[in-house]
Amino acid sequence: MHSVEQIMKRHALAQQRKDNWRQIYEDCYEYALPQRNLYDGYYEGGGAPGQNKMARVFDSTAINATQRFANRIQSGLFPPYGSWCRLEPGPDIPEERRIEAQAALDIYSEKMFALLRQTNFDLAMGEFLMDLAVGTAVMLVQPGDDVTPIRFTAVPQYLVAIEEGAHGKVDNVYRRMRMKAEAIKQHWSDAEIPDRLARMIEDKPTEEVELLEATLYDADKGDFCYHVIWPEAKAELLMRRMKSSPWIVARYMKVAGEVYGRGPLVTAIPDIKTLNKTKELLLKNASLSIAGVYTAADDGVLNPQTVRIAPGAIIPVARNGGPQGESLRMLPRSGDFNVSQLVINDLVMNIKKIMLDDTLPPDNMSARSATEVAERMKELAQNLGSAFGRLITETMVPIVARVLYVMDERGIIEMPLRVNGLEVKVTPVSPIAQAQNMGDIEKVMQWVQIASSLGPQGQMAIKTDGIADHIADKLGVPADLRTSPQERQQMMEQVAELAQEQPGEEEPPME
Known about the structure:
It is a single chain. This protein is α+β, with helices and mostly antiparallel strands and 511 residues long. The chain has a domain at 267-363. It has helices at 4-19, 22-32, 42-46, 61-77, 98-116, 121-134, 183-187, 195-203, 264-291, 340-354, 370-384, 386-409, 431-452, 456-460, 464-475, 485-501, and strands spanning 85-89, 136-143, 150-155, 160-164, 170-180, 208-218, 223-230, 235-242, 247-251, 294-296, 328-330, 424-428. A 5-stranded antiparallel beta sheet has the order 4-5-6-7-8, covered by helices on one side. The protein has a 3-stranded antiparallel beta sheet with strand order 3-2-9. Strands 1-12 form a two-stranded antiparallel sheet. Helix 2 (22-32) packs across helix 9 (264-291), helix 9 runs antiparallel to helix 10 and helix 11 packs across helix 13. The chain is flat, with a radius of gyration of 33 Å.
């Protein structure tokens, strides 16, 4: 158990470590995700709803590339309204019971995805992956009501400070949040409201209250302590113990010794800022080329303060030539800013390549075959590199474990499942994973062809049942469409019995 003072002190230290990343993350959000940028002072009251957050953005390449990055990852790993993973029995399940266990787990998987289709998971995942492009993404998974059984909230990482526990896992999460005073009791029905806050709720129900959510891991009991604190009065409104953390924290890539992640935007930000500055200078040069800069002689006829330079305007002057020079003439410029054209295309290509936006075919090309689409998905997985594995371990597996926990808590499933990789494991069946599985299947089929060509001895090396089960597992075929080993044995016995019961052909009589 932690006191309120200890929690607030730990949050202050975590926030101090988070502030070291402010400049890196602020640049990424300003130029690539301006609409989700809270580093511009908006949260502290420096802005208003509906404010323009793109005043310093002159190029949309990074904005579009980030959205395409999030869309590609979502369609490749978490396709909307699709089944992107499969629950499979782990090594602790005996081999003879694996198909039976798989049939039961398939029912759980169907229930889970039917439930996810009723929630806002696809919407929250899109926002979650856009934050992941910066480096660190945070999602809150909470129980809902009968209409929306589970609520997913993509929390801007600006509001969150995290602490790592053993083995680099994020155990403690702190979140700053603002809420209308009247909504506190609605959000947490079991919250203990201090007298001062109760008076505020009664007198100023619409005034926003700054709160602190803290989810801390208790290593002694192996569960999590959830606290809601009112920092202004150092009062604890709520404390709960939970077996599962509601937070999903993912890092795109993490350097040893660091807690927060570094995404592709961190790599691309030098090119993004250079491109943005080049476009800014190009636009300024274009405005000079269109309007021009002029010098005006104050000769008593031309008034420089009132002269208007516009198409079709007539400017009275004393003379346009002569020994005294022109009364109005264009100011010569040093030259055109043509160097920008040499670097803009290279910068755009580099940004798209870093954001994995260079492998899509042009819109005017013909339709792609299934094989080409699979190869492109395989290429995307290769380009993701270690981030692909981190997306599985820090995003997919925790989301599935949390959703199953909430389903068990609400009585939607009959028994809890331990998603620990030994009893139950999560296997991706998304397009990216299927592209990799098809490569494994091709290797097996090539080996079968080679073994079959070696004659009877090679054919004896082929275990047909094992190959069929292996391919079915790779393709994610439901267990209710496959026969179990017991059923196969019964079928073989029936075939043998039928063969014995068939009478032999009668020999022709001897002449």
